[in-house]
Amino acid sequence: MADQINKTDVSELGEFGLIDKLTGAVSLRNKSSKIGIGDDAAVIDTGNEKYTLVSTDMLVEGVHFNMMYVPLKHLGYKAVVVNLSDIYSMNGTPKQITVSIAVSNRYTVEALEELYKGVNLACERYGVDLVGGDTTSSVSGLVISITAIGEVEKDKLVCRSGAKENDLICVSGDLGSAYLGLQLLEREKEVYKVNPNMKPDFSGYDYLLERQLKPEARNDVIEELKKQYIKPTAMIDISDGLSSELHHVCLSSNTGCKIFEEKLPIDSVSISLCEEFNLEPAVSALNGGEDYELLFTVPLEAHEKIKKNVSISVIGHMCEKSEGLSLIGKSGGVVSLKARGWNHQSDAD
Amino acid sequence: MADQINKTDVSELGEFGLIDKLTGAVSLRNKSSKIGIGDDAAVIDTGNEKYTLVSTDMLVEGVHFNMMYVPLKHLGYKAVVVNLSDIYSMNGTPKQITVSIAVSNRYTVEALEELYKGVNLACERYGVDLVGGDTTSSVSGLVISITAIGEVEKDKLVCRSGAKENDLICVSGDLGSAYLGLQLLEREKEVYKVNPNMKPDFSGYDYLLERQLKPEARNDVIEELKKQYIKPTAMIDISDGLSSELHHVCLSSNTGCKIFEEKLPIDSVSISLCEEFNLEPAVSALNGGEDYELLFTVPLEAHEKIKKNVSISVIGHMCEKSEGLSLIGKSGGVVSLKARGWNHQSDAD
User: For chain A, how big is the Rg over CA atoms in Å?
Assistant: First the structure.
């Protein structure tokens, strides 16, 4: 029998399976490499009283964004914000970014200037410096790769792995709205394809579009928690959907969790659109993705303090690993939480 | 008259013009951002006795590499090395890298494992840690974006801007061979297209292929210079061709330069292939690119010491800015050096 060459499709493993497969055997040889792959940012100990944090993200045209409805300035802004969000979710402060782009000849200098206007606006808004990057041509479309560098005082670092049984599970802001904003844009794209003279109808849904097109990182939440002297035990930003992030935190912290459907923070505009689209609001909150809110855990004792924080919702609590990850429905039914996540396919449902 | 929308083609500006246009107005707001865009790596002052260095590069299929002749393991290795080279050229030591990839469904898990074998091999060889990254799908082809993080003692930092009039201009290794390796691969590709049964003929040219497919970063040169107590006044790695890099150093250092054709280090194998291809060896040395050798300047007093270093060639000296950048030909003729550089088009000549 001839040798067989294995050909495994990437989709069989999924993003996280693939990362495990490619980097699972990586060991850290430098003393300065404190935390490597497996958290929102890598942690580097430069021998200073602060750790250096490094996070990186790649956005690909046709996968993460569609030029039909994403203004370039917004895209530049969002590309920066999603990276900063990873630094904040380690309880850190971003300081620098590098921005690399690959562009096809379809993009004019003026178009790229728009993109960089958004990049610079985000830098200004979050107080970070654009310190480097790479500019190259691509065969098709636009690819943006950003690396964010930040810092955190050593005793303030928060990882995914610190959650304990009985810790409260908290999320900032509301969930699902960025995903619903995307659904809305996709619907209007389809309408436009059929009849290019139709004006897109976004009335009343500005909030959802903004959540999708121009998200903000929750540095305000990080600041507020510091003022309240609350240090989360674990933290992660919600980029792939609450459900997926809970799986990451539970896996890293070696716990299970229970969350309550009725506690999920969902905006009224999101609920309206869900009715129109015949979607379950809880499903978009759990699996939507791109919210860039913070998911974190705090000790039970912090309950009184955290209640006062209007941007925060307590949605459940951590439990023993053996109890698994579950959602308690409004009627009391219990369902197991699936790490469905969000594959950043704009046509995924 | 209706408003006119400006549409400037990116090619009108070229890579460096585009970078200037997009990032020219960027100012640094954080005290820790010591040096931003415009050197091989950004320099960050974390308040430590060492600076943190950050460099990033993006490689795009069909632009920087052709899967027809680049083995994936080599590609992974090279993608890491070109980034480390930027850290060494600041006289620093790389410690960590992040690797982000966007891949189309044409790539199997096994193919990506090959790519990461190369990444890990380079990490091992150069003592760096893979600490993070991003893995995503692409619409077409493969994109690799790597960020390297390193460190340098504050008083050891070498930038592009420190060269002085009369400083000696030095290069490590030999020049032009990586470019010639690429020409060879391109020729055999064309032969293969015409007749897929033809075996590629690389006999005697292994060195050139290795220079193109598996370059090494010159950390050995950095180490040797340290042992000799020579601190370069300016340094840059030769990724876009000697001519282009000299322009960067002269511009940053506010000087001109004179280099001598007869001093250019060109390997005998390169000269043979140039004869076969009817190319001028000096042209491939000046404009070839992808050599990843170091170009640096040292004070005149270092001449005796540097002569002892067999990996180094002194090719000329810096001069007053008003004298411009010139090449003294073998017959004594003087030509002005053009910043032609290398646009990483595999089909460029």
Answer: 21
CATH class of B10-156: alpha beta
Q: What is the pLDDT along chain A (349 residues), one digit of tens a residue?
A: 444 567 888 888 877 788 888 887 778 999 999 999 988 999 999 988 899 999 999 999 999 999 888 999 999 999 999 999 999 999 999 999 999 999 998 999 999 999 999 999 999 999 999 999 999 999 889 999 999 999 999 999 999 999 999 999 999 999 999 999 999 998 888 888 888 887 777 888 999 999 999 999 999 999 999 999 999 999 999 999 999 999 999 999 999 999 999 999 999 999 999 999 999 999 999 999 899 999 999 999 999 999 999 999 999 999 999 999 999 999 999 999 987 644 443 332 2
Identify the architecture of domain A160-336 in CATH: Alpha-Beta Complex (3.90)
Token reading at A201: 């109808």
Burial B145-168 (b: 16+ CB within 10 A, else e): bbbbbbbbeeebbbbbbbbebebb
* Chain A interface disruption, residue of B5, B29, B56, most A CBs within 10 A: B56
List the single residue in B6, B10, B54 with the smallest CB-CB distance to A105: B10
Shortest Cα distance, chain B CAs vs residue A58, angstroms: 6
Helix ranges, chain A (H): 10-23, 72-88, 109-126, 177-194, 206-213, 219-227, 242-253, 268-277, 281-287, 303-307
Domain residue spans in chain A? 10-156, 160-336
Which residue of chain A comes nearest to B31, CA vs CA? A95
- pTM of the model as a whole: 0.92
CA B317/CA B322 separation, integer angstroms? 14
The number of beta carbons lying within 10 Å of the beta carbon of residue B6 is 8
For B208-230, give one letter per residue: b (16+ CB within 10 A) or e. bbebbbbbbbbbebbebbeeeeb
Contacts of B85 in chain A (CB under 8 A): none
Q: How far is B331 from chain A (nearest CA, A)?
A: 38
Distance from CA of A342 to the nearest CA of B (A): 12
Q: Do A42 and B127 touch (CB under 8 A)?
A: no
Q: What are phi and psi of B326, to 5 degrees?
A: -135, 155
